[in-house]
Amino acid sequence: MCGRFALYSPTPKVSEALRLPLEEAGEIAPRYNVAPGTWITVLRHPGDDAPLVMDEAWWGYRPHWAREKAPEPINATVEKVATSNYFRGAFAHHRCLVPADGWYEWLPVDGRKQPHFLCREDREPLWLAGIWSERPDGRPGCAILTEPARGVASEIHDRMPLVLDETSLEPWLDPHLTDRETIRGAVHHLAAGRLTHWPVSTRVNRTGNEGADLIEPVPS
Predict the structure, then answer these.
(1) Residue of 2, 96, 119, 142 marked active site
(2) Less CB within 10 Å around the terminal CB: N or C of the chain?
(3) Is domain 5-215 in CATH 3.90.1680.10, yes or no?
(4) By its UniProt entry, which InterPro entries does this protein fall under (predicted)?
């Protein structure tokens, strides 16, 4: 799953790494402990013919047509996102990217859970595949897609966020690309060999804790 991540790269670095025309780009405040149920930075087309923008979405997906007590998941699995009644409309028409510098996962060790930070070996930003929908309040809410863990990520957990490679960003964001199989043929995950991880402080367990020290390696 993906339940916590970090985004501390400044807006110019994220925009440069994207390599796509960006109409608007809100300023990114460094966050080392991004938790569900908060506003997070996303890249999306607000409408079919609207330019690409970097703005905020609520990390919790509940479309405006859902019942008041409908679930508000933070993740959607790649196995079901295109076919589930709850997600398939967003998968077809409202895909987004969640930029991140890395994410956290917890490894059971001797009856405790040791947090690890997972990121690219070259420390460049990651692009997490997401879907969004307009919430009842009219603002966007999103979920991050997850897939079976690959490579070193499988050492920590059995699932991981769907991290896209650079060639997949434009087709993933294209609102006119709606066919399930066409999308799957055009979109590829980042090679597992480009990821790395290390153990970090249990301070990350508390969502109120912040700071660059949260991603510093600690003895395992």
Answers:
(1) 2
(2) C
(3) yes
(4) SRAP, SRAP-like
Average pLDDT over the chain reads 95
96 is a catalytic site residue: no
DSSP per-residue string spanning 191-211: PGGGEEEEEB-GGGGSTT--S
Report whether pLDDT(68) > 90.
Answer: no
Backbone φ/ψ region at 52: left (φ over 0), alpha (ψ -120 to 50), beta: beta
Q: How far is CA 108 from CA 118, 129, 173, 206, in A?
A: 16, 27, 36, 17
Q: Is 2 a catalytic residue?
A: yes
Band (25; pLDDT cuts 50, 70, 90): confident
pTM check: above 0.90: yes
Is the pLDDT reported for residue 2 higher than 90?
no
Question: Which of 11-25, 124-138, 178-192 is predicted with the least confidence, judged by mean pLDDT?
Answer: 11-25
Decide the pairing of beta strands 24-25 and 53-59: parallel
What's the average model confidence in pLDDT over 78-99? 97
Where along the chain do its domains lie?
A: 5-215
